[in-house]
Design a protein that fits this description.
The protein is mainly α and 87 residues long. The chain has one domain. Helix content is 80%, strand content 0%. The protein starts with a helix and ends with a helix. Keywords: Cell membrane, Membrane, Transmembrane, Transmembrane helix, Transport.
């Protein structure tokens, strides 16, 4: 989990501001940093919602299993090369 977070943190802005011909999104620095700030905010706020969900709705065991599956799916999806997705 920490590997995914710090890996994303290290390359997110670089990927967003890279030119589209180089495989990036071609965003401005301001827009990329705004998304980075939103991402960081979500990283620190979503555990509050997740904790409430685990305590009041799902239970700890179900929440851990569902969270682990979602994290694994996210990491696998990030590993798919762009050429496979684009066809």
């Amino acid at each position: 989990e920490r590997f995914g977070y710090y890996g994303m943190r290290a390359i997110l802005v670089l990927y967003l501001v890279a030119m589209t011909k180089d495989g990036g999104f071609g965003w401005s620095n301001a827009d990329a940093l705004s998304l980075y700030g939103t991402f960081t905010m979500a990283v620190y706020l979503t555990p509050l919602f997740g904790g409430w969900l685990a305590d009041n709705v799902l239970g700890q065991r179900k929440a851990i299993i569902i969270g682990g599956i979602l994290m694994a799916l996210g990491h696998f999806i990030m590993g798919i090369p762009h050429s496979v997705v684009a066809g």
